[in-house]
Design brief:
Helices cover about 45% and strands about 20% of the residues. The chain is of the alpha/beta class. It folds into two domains: about 100 residues, Response regulator (Rossmann fold, 3-Layer(aba) Sandwich); about 110 residues, Arc Repressor Mutant, subunit A (Orthogonal Bundle), CATH 1.10.10.10. The longest helix is centred in the middle third of the chain and has 29 residues.
């Protein structure tokens, strides 16, 4: 089944060009010319990737991304004609996964798309393997189930008691990484390297902050966690 991409841009010629080239690569493509239609399509079509222009009529790309992140963790590639660093920073802070400044070559665009989709596939494959190794429940549609907590790999989202959680991209990646290593004690340095990347310039406190945020969303009592366990002097362990 081909991967599905939602492309959002109010410049019709560019929208058609991107859609055409993505379809040539074998992807299924949905398109939208404004933010409101983009949100509706994203929620109904459940794309594997969203390509989102920042300068949209009515609701801009920043606001679209904020709304998407309330219920979905689908990877978002932002497109913009502006090259200001503040725009890139804000874009990433509201939940974008990558950023491409116009004008760009079609080769670079397709490479970014392939890289983001490859990352999604790897996460799904690793989680499926982890489920088989740990005996976790893998439901139809590629969902990992830990009691009332469900990691839906197809939709790239997490639900608790049937309610979608508004996880930031790094929170989702962090939870996925723990699910891949259920029952294993993971050090802060190991988490930083595998979730943030070897070139991350921050320190281990970043892990602690994100763990606190994640616990507030998935734990019944964040002050007494039962899923994300602190192992004093060693790191953290996911019990599912």
């Amino acid at each position: 089944m081909p991967e599905k991409i939602l492309v959002v841009d109010d410049e019709i010629s560019l929208l058609e060009t991107l859609a055409y080239n993505l379809q040539k690569q074998g992807y299924e493509v949905e398109t939208a010319g404004d933010g409101l239609n983009a949100l509706t399509l994203a929620q109904s079509a459940h794309p594997d990737l969203i390509v989102l222009d920042l300068m949209l009529p009515g609701m801009d790309g920043f606001e679209v991304c904020r709304e998407l992140r309330k219920t979905m963790n689908t990877p978002v590639l932002i497109l913009t004609a502006r090259d200001d660093e503040i725009d890139r920073v804000v874009g990433l802070e509201v939940g974008a996964d990558d950023y491409l400044t116009k004008p760009f070559s079609m080769r670079e665009f397709l490479a970014r798309v392939k890289a983001l989709l490859r990352r999604v596939r790897m996460i799904r494959e690793e989680l499926t393997s982890a489920a088989q190794q740990t005996g976790s429940t893998l439901a139809p549609g590629n969902s990992l189930i830990y009691g009332s907590l469900v990691i839906d790999l197809s939709r790239h989202e997490v639900r608790l008691r049937d309610q979608a959680l508004a996880l930031k991209p790094k929170e989702y990646e962090l939870l996925v990484y723990f699910a891949q290593h259920q029952g294993v004690v993971l050090s802060r340095d190991l988490i930083l390297e595998n979730v943030w990347g070897w070139d991350f310039t921050g320190d281990s406190r970043t892990v602690d902050v994100h763990m606190r945020w994640l616990r507030e969303k998935i734990e019944e009592d964040p002050s007494n966690p039962t899923r994300l366990i602190t192992v004093r002097g060693a790191g953290y362990r996911f019990e599912g």
